[in-house]
Every structure is written in structure tokens, then in C-alpha cells.
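hey can u check if this looks right to u? its 393 residues, i copy pasted from the old doc so theres a chance i mangled smth
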Amino acid sequence: MHTTVQASRRRRPGPEPFRQFVVKVNSRCNLACRYCYMYFAADPGWRAQPVSIAPATLDRLARRIAEHAATHRLPAVQVVLHGGEPLLTDPEVLGGFVDLVRAAVPAGCRVGAVVQTNGTLLTGARLRALARHRIGVGLSVDGGLARHNAARVDHAGRPAWPGIRRAARLLASPTHRDSYTGVLSVIDLDTDPIEVYRSLLELDPPAVDFLLPHGNWTSPPPGLADARPGVDRPTPYADWLTTVFDAWWHADRRRVRIRIFEECLAALLRQPTAGDLFGLAPFSAVVVETDGAIEQSDSLKSAYPGAAATGLHIATDPFDAALGHPGVAARQGGAGALAAACRACPLLAVCGGGHYAHRYRAGHGFANPSVYCADLARLTHHLAAAVRRAVPR
């Protein structure tokens, strides 16, 4: 493991350029999901943001992305249209921005684009507009049944499920199948994991991304209220996930990709990972808010007010300036940026310290193991055992 980490460092003599640009096209949402880390967590900064990103900001941003791609000779970049709810903006406006980026980047640089939506505003006409601009669609959903989505309501308390179900059917239809990138689903410990898994399969996504709720040592996620560093404790999230893994792993036909499992398996087998949950690959995503501010991952907003801020702005700063920000450098620092307990852990090269936002502890910053440390260890051991049984020594 130590050799793998050192070799990885030798391949990365300098900062890793950004390859994913998360664009907050709206700072508001038509839903009021009760667990949302954007609107119901530590950072109220969204209130000061413009509701929508201005055309002039989009134009400047396209040029900044192209500048970064040219500086680092990137073969490909990804644009993620995010919010709030991105479909509060006309899909033709979103498509026009993506077209600007594609026209501005150097020849040979591919631009992938996806909109991450709650689905309630998705219609056939909007899907066709997005498809004309080669923009994929990811759906955020908490399970494939109405009762799984009880926390997904609009500002009047009305359920979002009818709109979500309609969006899933549209995306899974033969007409729009090519636009469907998958579903994101936040784990709810009060749900039955097999029921959730099977219900998501009924939505027929090409991929599922099960997300751990954003929390940390100071504001623990549900089920880990008594979490304390260095103390043995239950592993409710690993218990939930391993139940799903066993059903997925032993299925006669694997109908869907599940990112959290594939990332863990890749890290176990010393294959490349995205680096935000498993492995020691450097973080390579950056966020641009509706006012043009350059920020780190918005998941940091679950830690404390201003945690994601860099003080940089696309009007005055290239994206390269953000590569020198201490927070970005820490997320690209490999094992050297992790807590001593993580550096000494035999799972270091696989776990990679867990998600950066989940390491925060007031008064100690982010140099801590993940609040999900025990869960990640149990999940890793479970998947490693499955691989050992499946692959001859």
C-alpha cells in the first residue's frame, strides 16, 4: 500500500487540474427536502446569491473553462449543471452555455455535460431540448416508492413523488434512454435496503449512486449521534450498504452500476478511482456559484458557514488560482494531508480517508478520520471478502 501511494505521488508532481466544473445555475429550489445540506445546514450563504446565473457570467465562465483546458492540455472536461434546481432555468439557456464551452475549448478537448435535477420540472419538451445540446440527465431520488420520498416535498409541503415518477418514466423510455445518466439516492436508515434497491431497479437507471448523508463529528449524520473519534461504535450505514451489495453482487444479471461499490472494488484492486470517497486520487472538481464566485465542493457547506469559499471570482481569477487554495491543496495532498490515524491505517490506500466534508470537527478542522470511518472499514472488509471468494488466489 505504501508503495502504491508513493508511486501515485511521483505521477503527480504538481497540482491536479480541475476536470469537472459544477455550475450553480440557480441558487434556489422548487423543493424543500427536509435533509438538504444546502438549505437546512450550517451555511446560509445561498441567501446572498443571485437567484439565477446571469448570461454575462455564463459567457465569462465558458472562457475560463476553456482557458483552464488549454493551460493544462486537457483531453476532456465535464460540466455539471446544478443548483438549487437547474431546470428552473430554460433548457435552451443551459444548452447555449454548454455550446459556448464546446466552441471555446481547444480542438480535441471533449466536453461532457449533465444536468442534475429533482425531476419535478422535467417534461418531454425539456428533455428534447437538452438532448439537442447533448446534455445528459441525472435524477435525484430517495427510492423508487412514494414512501421513500416522504422528505421530498415542495415549499407548501406537497409530495414531489408524482413528478419524480413521471421524470423517471420519461428518462427510461426508448425515446430518451440515451439521456439518462443515473440516479442519486441518499441513504435513509429507516428504509429497508432491499426494498429501496429493488424499487430503484424499477426506475430502470443505468447507474445508481448511494450517498452517505452529509455530516461530520460536530454535526453527526442520523444514526451516529454519539460518534466520537477513536471509539468503537455500530456501523448502521455499512450494514445497510452490505445488504444491498450482497443482492447486487450475487444477482444472476447485474442490471445497474452502483458507484459506491465499484469505487471501493476499484480501490481494492488498485484501479483508478474518482477520489472523493475511496482511494487517494486527487480531487479535481470545482464549483462556480450564481454570482461567479469560485468555490470548493458545496458539500463543505454542511460543516460551517464559509467552509467552501475561496475568495476567488471568475471575473478576476483563473481556475489555476484555486489550485493553490489551502482547502484544494489539502484535498489533493494524498496521504500526507490525512490524520495520523488514517496514515497508520492498513486500509489507507483503499479508504483514502473518506469524503473530505465528513472529516470535519470543530476546533480540529478536517485533519480527522471520517465520521463514517467504522462504516467504511466494515464495508471495505465485506467487499474484499467477496472478491477473495470470487477470484482465485
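Strands lie at 20-24, 76-82, 110-117, 136-140, 180-186, 207-211, 257-258, 285-288, 293-295, 309-313.
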